[in-house]
Each structure stands twice: as structure tokens, then as C-alpha cells.
Sequence to fold (287 residues):
Amino acid sequence: MDEGVFEAYEKEIQALEEEIRLLTEKYEDMRQESAFFSEEEILKAIKSLQEETEGETKGHESPSDLKAQLESLESDLSFLMEFTGFHFTSHSKKTVEKTQNRTVQKHSLSGKCHSIPFQVKFQLLEMQKDEKVSAVVSDLSIEMESREDSNMSKFVSRTEECGDLMTFFRSLSTYAEWYEHRRHTFLHFKAKYPDIVTLPEGLLGDFIILKNPKVPGFELVIVWKIHLDEEGTTTPVLDLLPKVPEQVLEQRMRSVESIPGSFRSALRLFGIEAAVENLIRVLGSGQ
Fold:
């Protein structure tokens, strides 16, 4: 083979190897920061990289393995957001210090967990020793609309003091799931039994009222609190409060007094939805 042709092929191969290396570096950067960007930003970045790749590699085959990795990243991100309920809407970071073994960055992160919005600001210190990397979170600041809930406010304050970012996200995910579950349950029973179920504070309230259409003034109030302790443990707390007219109370005192206890027993045996369903059916039947 002519030496000039051989040299041309060798240069072409080197150019392609360098191109693949650069694209791989871009992909690794995207993967490392993907947890901090919104789904929309990730999709835009992927599209931009694909267009850039097509322009730079025109006349050559695109690296199929890189394309597969990008598609896998997009799929994993979508699954992660669906599974955890977290949807990040914005992220910014600023490097305030960087040496060979030490990096300090300030982060600001906003988003929603299901329907609960939040904003988190913190400073991240990364230190490298040999092959080990350690990270420390400090100056943690959390803003949430749900801080009006005294339990949530105490939990957030303690989390800020400890700088425990992972516990915050894990606990918020569980709390938001119960919050969403309560909303969907209230909506279900209101749609199924519109003449019996009322929602004085709407779907975001923490109680519903059951009314017996045949007995004016007779009401059962189901209170559903979502308790979050300072350690981040979420517990649903339900109770039943009867509101009974005096004439009915005089006639059926013992039966009325037994309703809350029976409801609590049904909660333990059958769960929330089945216990509420059974109560509504009994109430609607006029028993």
C-alpha cells in the first residue's frame, strides 16, 4: 500500500478516536449532573448533543454505543422521576474554591415532589485523598410551602441544622406520597358518593365530612393527619369525630359512642380505603 495512503488512513482513524473521546467526556459530564437538572433541560441537552454530533461526524458513522448510552440516560431519568415523584425545575451552581484536592461549590435547586414545591440551597465541599472522595454539605437552607405544618417545620429546621440532605429528600418523598394518596382518596369518595361526602377545605384539606341524607344534622368527620417527626418518619393518623343531633343522641347513645372505636378497628383490619368505604355504605343505608 502506498505510504501516503496509509498515512491518510492513520490520520483519519486518529481523528475519529479523538472525536469519540470528546463525545464520551461530554456524556460523562451530563450523567454526573443529570440529577440536578430538570427533565426538560436534560432532553434539550441530549437533542443539542445529537445535532452537534451529526454535524461534526457528517460522512462518518455515529458511535452506536454512545447513542445507546444517551438513550439509556434519558430512559433512566424518566423512570427515576416517575418512581420518586421528584421533578426538578431549576439548578444552578457556583464554584467558590477549587484546588487539586478540594472543591467548594454553592448549589441552588428547585422542584416539586409530587405536588409539594421546594427550594434547597447548600454548599458542597468535596475532598479527595488518594482514590477516595468525601463530600460534606453545609449552609443548608430549605424553603417549603408546607412549613405551615408545625411537624414539617420542625423536621426542616432539624435537617437544616444537621445538613442531612439525603434524609430530607428521602423523607419528603414518603411524606409527599402520603399527601398525594390522601388527596386521591378524598377525590375518589367525593366522586363516588357526592350526596354523602363533602370537602369543606377541598382536596388539600385534612378531613372530610360524611352526611346522612335521611338524618339532618347527623355528620361523621374523618380526620386524616400526616405526621412527620423530627427524624423524618411519616405516619398517617386517622380518627372519627361524630356530630349527632340531641334527639338522635338520646335515642342511640350507645350506638353513637361505639362508632369511633369501630372505625379504628376497621382501619387496623382492612386499611384506610376499605374502612371509609364500609362507613359510607352503612351511613347511606340509614342503619
Notes: DSSP finds eight helices and eight strands in the chain. Strands lie at 86-98, 102-113, 116-129, 132-144, 197-198, 207-211, 219-228, 234-243.
